[in-house]
Design a protein that fits this description.
By secondary structure, the protein is mainly alpha-helical. The protein has 15 helices and no strands. The chain has helices spanning about 1-25, 30-55, 75-90, 105-120, 130-165, 180-200, 205-225, 235-240, 250-260, 275-280, 285-295, 300-315, 325-330, 340-350, 355. Helix 2 runs antiparallel to helix 3, helix 3 (about 75-90) packs parallel to helix 5 and helix 8 runs antiparallel to helix 11. It starts with a helix and ends with a helix. This is HTH araC/xylS-type domain-containing protein.
Length: about 350
């Protein structure tokens, strides 16, 4: 049974290391959200690997490397805070000074490594954790910091919930931030266990092991089958662009956009492009695209086609248009060909044009 447990711990640790490397390497693409999540998974992985090391008596091996000191708990709160920032405030800018939050963790690792090799060389048996000041700085302080970060996490979730409620166009509203709820629940549970063990000396190591194992297994499984899970919530993606155009009034520009489509019927222009509409409104293309995506939850092309299909349906019901063919009406509504009209009409209404006429 003991050997089986050690195998499970090693397998999950291996998966965790691969996942951590993948997440940490995302910094090359400036995906900071995944990078800081990678720091968290690295700490969790090292904790599980250390559990294996204890059970396998690895610590007593003469030339063992103290990998466990690399998983400083002091790096957990800032990593979670940055992960939260990049998932809830997409315009957040990482600055050099922010990395100073990891300085305490770096110092702890250096001191721990020095202590480990000093004991090896001098045949000493000094334990830093038995020093009350060191214990407070490396065990109590991270717990307090985690509580603080989780309070901020809860406030951000509440803010996003309120925004989703107001956004009637948001698709699969709360599924968009389900990832954040999952992480918040897991980290809250781990922090509760952490408090009980560190402050109240309650023996919950088995519960922590199971929680960490499930956490890594879940992330590994999701990372393989649904990597988009690690993307920032869709509702926030457009803010990155729209923040650059804060000088524009969304409500005012949406009314102008609505006017040129509903009253001026600009959609009837063949091969209408985003550039054409943007030029007509005297607005940047990226801004027009972002407000269509944010407020209508669709792409520019689909937005244009929805007006064309609606115009065709309205006109084929009009007795004054009875002398025209269906394709003729479609061409006048802005479609370029019979095939594109048929496919777009079916995609929009769920029926072929001919079937729709027979209703």
């Amino acid at each position: 049974m003991k050997t089986f447990e050690q195998i499970i711990l090693l397998l999950v640790s291996g998966q965790g290391l691969l996942l951590s490397i993948a997440l940490l390497s995302s910094i090359l693409k400036k995906n900071y959200s995944n990078f800081f999540l990678g720091i968290i998974t690295t700490i969790v992985t090292l904790e599980i690997l250390n559990t294996w090391a204890i059970r396998a008596s690895y610590h007593s091996i003469e030339n063992s490397f103290p990998f466990w000191v690399l998983g400083s708990y002091l790096s957990f709160p800032p990593a979670l805070w940055f992960f939260l920032k990049f998932n809830t405030r997409p315009t957040f800018q990482l600055k050099s000074k922010h990395y100073l939050l990891f300085a305490p963790a770096f110092i702890e690792i250096i001191v721990e490594l020095f202590s480990f090799y000093y004991n090896k060389l001098m045949r000493a048996n000094y334990s830093l954790i038995e020093n009350s000041v060191w214990f407070t700085l490396t065990e109590i302080v991270p717990v307090i910091a985690m509580i603080f970060v989780l309070v901020i996490f809860a406030k951000e979730l509440n803010r996003l919930n309120n925004r989703l409620k107001k956004n009637s166009n948001a698709k699969n509203k709360f599924l968009q931030i389900s990832k954040l709820y999952i992480f918040f629940s897991i980290f809250s549970l781990l922090t509760i266990f952490w408090i009980l063990i560190t402050i109240f000396n309650v023996q919950l190591f088995t519960f922590i092991e199971v929680t960490l194992l499930l956490f890594l297994f879940m992330l590994g499984y999701i990372g393989y089958f649904k990597p988009s899970f690690f993307d920032i919530p869709k509702i926030l993606k457009n803010e990155i662009i729209r923040e650059k155009f804060s000088q524009y009034d969304d409500e005012k520009e949406l009314k102008r956009l609505k006017n040129i489509f509903e009253n001026e019927k600009i959609f009837k222009q063949k091969k209408l492009s985003l550039k054409d509409v943007s030029t007509h409104l005297n607005l940047p293309e990226r801004y027009v695209s972002s407000i269509i995506k944010a407020y209508h939850n669709t792409t520019f092309t689909s937005f244009v086609n929805s007006f064309r299909v609606a115009d065709v349906i309205q006109r084929i019901k009009d007795p004054k248009e009875s002398n025209k063919t269906l394709i003729g009406i479609a061409m006048e509504s802005g479609f370029n060909s019979k095939s594109s009209f048929n496919s777009i009409f079916k995609a929009t209404t769920g029926k072929n044009p001919s079937s729709f006429l027979k209703r």
